[in-house]
Amino acid sequence: MKITVGVVGLGLIGASFCKAYKANEPEAVVYGWNRTESVVQMAKMQGVIDDALTDQNLSSCDLVILSLYPEASLKWMEDHRAFFKKGGIVTDACGTKRYICEKAFPIAEEEGFTFVGCHPMAGTHFSGMAHSKADMYEGAPMVIVPPRFDDMGIIDKIKELFAPCGFGSFHLAHADEHDQMIAFTSQMPHLISNAYIKSPNSRNHTGFSAGSYKDMTRVAWLNPVMWTQLFLENKDHLIFEIDNLQKELQKYKDALVNDDADGLIGLLDEGRKIKEEVDGV
Fold this sequence. Notes:
6-phosphogluconate dehydrogenase C-terminal fold; 2 domains; 8-stranded mixed beta sheet
């Protein structure tokens, strides 16, 4: 498939997109932009991209992937809105969707290209191009937030354009639905993990911890600036999840304070059954 791709932001996510196209689509031309010019030069030297993404070649890109923080992605789109290919596709890889989609959909319509909100459900706790890899997205889910849900042509086009990345599934969602679910599946685990590691016992855990500790603390190692922006943009859904968790934790605490063995058994069994129901045995 002959395709020209522009990737804005050559960190972990953006550079992994570049590597996927270069590894799996021989006819792909990949341009890259990064705030730090030396990263672009390094990416070109390493064969991660073919050349720098400029206003001149932006208009030749069939697909542009914005891989910056949400506010920066939107600003980049606004600053370059007149240079996108007419009829082309512009997507993002941001962790929230309401903020960027609300503003990006009308910009795209005014300028004659199509914006589709996207969220690749993949990544690591590392950051930067050095940790990017061509198989980052193989088998991973991709959430799509299209401007319209009655145009399957856009959906089919997105699947075709992302085919070299190897996504395992594509899921349609409205922007608010996406953000509601992400508050539960992604943002809360990061927040809980980050709070959990603040226990005064954390510095003395060596020799007393195994898989449970590792699972619980894996995502405590995060990018504070990025996650702060994502948390604030989605604070209504995140606050709902925090309130619900606090309510549930209070039940466990009350059972312990009252030496209520039967109550504690009931709470633990309830959680076990819900896990079994939603995720299988």
